[in-house]
Amino acid sequence: MLQVSNLKTSFRTPEGIVKAVDSIDLSLRKGEKVGLIGETGCGKTVFGMSVVRLLPHNTSISGKVSYKGKDLMTVPESHMQNIRGSEISFILQNPSVSLNPLMRVGGQIEEAVRKGKNLSAQESRKETLRLLKEVNFQDPEYIMNRYPHELSGGMKQRVMIAIGIASEPDLIIADEPTKALDKGNKKEILSLLSDTAERSSMIMITHDLAAASELCDRILVMYAGEIVEDGPCDEILSDPLHPYTIAFIKAHPKNGCKAIPGSSPSLIDLPSGCRFHPRCPDACAKCRTNHPDLSNGHSHHRKNRCHCH
Ligand SMILES: Nc1ncnc2c1ncn2[C@@H]1O[C@H](COP(=O)(O)OP(=O)(O)OP(=O)(O)O)[C@@H](O)[C@H]1O
Ligand code: NI
Questions:
Q1: 116, 135, 182, 291 — which has fewest CB within 10 A?
Q2: What percent of the chain has pLDDT over 70?
Q3: What total of structural domains would you count in the chain?
Q4: Going by CA atoms, what residue is nearest to atom 24 of ligand 1?
Q5: CA 207 to ligand 1: nearest atom
Q6: Is residue 114 part of a domain?
């Protein structure tokens, strides 16, 4: 359904060219859910934004993004806007920024409901109430008339999900949907996403491995703009191959919070060879000079970008 090949996104800045996304390939089947994980600044959000072409002016982008046979890199912006509102929805990272503070939440959901559909005011109101119920609001009529600042973080996130699923999209890109939520809210949002988006394909962008593994079939691990490992959730968690994935799992609070030594490389001046080699406990001479490919060394359904594992 979604086929991304050799996607490269970079930004021109006064300091130099920031290679935020470098040669990413991803293919997503109908209904499939993948988690895109990796530390801050590795390019996850830029990847998501590149798929739907929501990028600033200082961007250069190349490669191919094909969605249901349409080339999203070349469709006109007006067509892209229709696709964004109805077929692909992007649930943004920060609901406080993405909700309009001056508009009642009901109106904002109604806008999303109407997009691409010819509904009467009464029908779209009814659908809005249904969506609010679906995202677990007991009193949708009351919530409809609230302004975003009158809601808690978890409630706003649920409103964002209602907006995200309003058009019954085929693909949902959710950027950190559980960020800054407490444990109970996190659990609720995850189960909501998995119930309401059952039929949609999903790319879930997150730092949270546990969240990704609850919802996703597959995990892609990203480091310094590229995918370093790709495989089924359970296998990545129980038997990670790439030294970065191993370190990332150990850094999770559940696994002892052991920080990865060193810091993420500058995307302007990337290390030679394997991008992880300066921080890798197993790096050998080859890792310092040769850039490894993402290959199927272990089995056909797993990929790893490492000379040594
Ligand atoms: N408009 C821009 N101009 C220049 N650099 C940018 C721009 N937008 C993003 N970047 C850079 O691109 C890199 C990737 O950013 P991105 O937001 O995709 O990271 P991320 O993996 O989503 O991180 P986080 O987990 O913190 O959300 C970062 O180094 C960021 O500073
Ligand atoms: Ni991000």
A1: 182
A2: 99
A3: 1
A4: 40
A5: 25
A6: yes
